[in-house]
Amino acid sequence: MGTTAFVRSAELRLGCLLLSGAAVLPALGATLEVSVIDEQGRPIENVAVYAMPADGLTAEPVATAPAALMDQQRLQFVPHLLVVQAGTSVTFPNGDDVSHHVYSFSDTKTFELPLYKGEVHPPVVFHDAGVVVLGCNIHDGMLGYIVVVDTPHFARTNGRGIASLEVLPGNVYAVSAWTPRVRPSGLPPAQQVAVTESAANAGAIEIRVSGRLAPPHEHSASSLTWERY
User: pTM for the whole thing?
Assistant: First the structure.
């Protein structure tokens, strides 16, 4: 084979490799910014926000995702609200100097981690979508939430009340918000958002929570109770 033919053959093979590699690249995501506010337009922090395909199809449960973390610090669950995709395992380390006894009576996931310090118990897998309320059998003021969703497109609002979701272009999504500070009947309806095929930025939407909000959870005196969910 001559030098010219060899170079052309190598270029052809390289081109085929590049094309085959491009074929398996994942679709690029677009960022959807969701702002959650109250009736007065004030931002609401620590709200679970998630986007479901409007056709009703749910994502496959995660099989090998790294474990999420629900810590226990200063006699509180940290974070107070955790959002995970169905199939995720969650570890519950005890970062306090005192023992805790973590449990949940929620229909979504009922479990119990008997009295312990440090990292004693294996991760707990959350298979089903729904809300899981956490408590401690020793410290009644400890209260936490795990929101399990059937989608990989989720986030939690920051101090400015904003959550950034990575979504796929060319889809229509129903975007929902959840907070324990309102009863289920007071949660806002899902909003439909169409993300265009060529979108790198999916834009921004606003979700307004109507009605009276319970105060944020405090360990010493909380208006949030098991009975709400």
Answer: 0.81
